[in-house]
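The methods section describes the discrete structure representation at length, but only in general terms. An entry of this sort, consisting of the sequence and the corresponding backbone structure tokens, reads as follows:
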Amino acid sequence: MAVPTQLEDGVRAFNYDTYEVDGEMLVCHGYCEFGQQPFADALAELADFLAAHPRELVLLSIQDGA
């Protein structure tokens, strides 16, 4: 399920696994070949939500695989 949907559904904690692939920081889980998102885009999704909901709190744990 997409992060914006999860945020709208009430999820407030995320664990992002970050990896560097061909010089780009990505968010993916284990094998980036099966699905990935640029790290900057993932952070932008959270920033957009927080800008629209300034009284909300989101916990972000970043696992650095880079």
Summary: The chain is about 30% helix and 30% strand. The chain has a mean pLDDT of 92. Helices lie at 3-8, 39-52.
